[in-house]
Automatic annotation (TrEMBL):
Keywords: Flavoprotein, FMN, NAD, NADP, Oxidoreductase. Belongs to the nitroreductase family. HadB/RutE subfamily. This is Putative NADH dehydrogenase/NAD(P)H nitroreductase FHS52_001571. Its EC number is 1.-.-.-. One of its GO terms (molecular function) is oxidoreductase activity. It comes from the Bacteria. PANTHER family: MALONIC SEMIALDEHYDE REDUCTASE RUTE-RELATED. Its cofactor is FMN. Residues 31-180 form the Nitroreductase domain. InterPro entries: Nitroreductase (IPR029479), Nitroreductase-like (IPR000415), Nitroreductase_HadB/RutE (IPR050461), RutE-like (IPR023936). Pfam families: Nitroreductase.
Length: 202
């Protein structure tokens, strides 16, 4: 039997696109992001791992002028113009009751029962895994040739009221603009630590 190892390293160009040359953008070219592109981001990010395949992320893609204006009201002054200018900004939330979906998302086990009656464990699982999913979203967008601008400078209660009013069990984690970033809108790259600074191999 031949054992297949996953030893295919991506090209330098791919690694540059995902990491080395990818930046967090503050300004955007006036170029539309299609709904098909948003679907394509989802179709990649949903394949990346979450605990017990819980998939707790709940996303509102803010694309219309009305929705942008509503989101702009909820963010810190410094982020307002960015949200208004971006072709789309994802409100990346999570569902505190994600466990209701586990019977079909994780059919191998009765995972729903692990979380029933333990809201603290659900909050922790939902926040941890929706943060991962937000990161997957950014890498999926970059893989598809788009740029990202993540932001946590907003009033969470206001975002929840504006975008999750019908879903009181959904809460925002962070928001992330997606589009074609204007290189004129970014500072010089901030320093990144060497391996030895924050790592050790035990
Ligand atoms: C979760 C998160 C929240 C952030 N919040 C803000 C924000 O509110 N406003 C802002 O201008 N940048 C924000 N940033 C952008 C970071 O400052 C930026 O990603 C970091 O400095 C690295 O920049 P680079 O990707 O261009 O190297 C945020 C980034 C992340 C990941």
């Amino acid at each position: 039997m031949t054992v297949q190892f996953h030893d295919h390293v991506l090209s330098d160009a791919a690694l540059d696109q995902l990491f080395n040359e990818a930046r967090s953008y503050n300004g955007w070219f006036d170029k539309t992001v299609s709904d098909e592109q948003l679907h394509a981001i989802w179709d990649l990010m949903k394949m990346a791992p979450t605990s017990a395949n819980m998939q707790p992320v709940r996303i509102v893609w803010v694309k219309s002028s009305d929705a942008k204006a509503k989101l702009a009201e909820c963010v810190m002054e410094g982020n307002r113009a960015k949200v208004l200018a971006a072709p789309v900004t994802a409100v990346i939330g999570y569902d505190i009751d994600f466990h209701e979906e586990l019977p079909w998302l994780f059919p191998h086990a009765d995972a729903k029962s692990w979380f029933e009656g333990d809201e603290r464990a659900r909050e922790q699982g939902a926040f941890r895994n929706s943060s991962l999913q937000g990161a997957y979203l950014m890498l999926a967008a970059r893989a598809l040739g788009l740029d990202c601008g993540p932001m946590s400078g907003f009033n969470g209660d206001a975002v929840n009221a504006a975008f999750f009013a019908d879903e009181p069990r959904h809460r925002v984690n962070f928001i992330c603009s997606v589009g074609y970033g204007d290189p004129a809108s970014i500072f010089e790259r901030s320093p990144r630590p060497e391996f030895a600074t924050f790592n050790r191999i035990a």
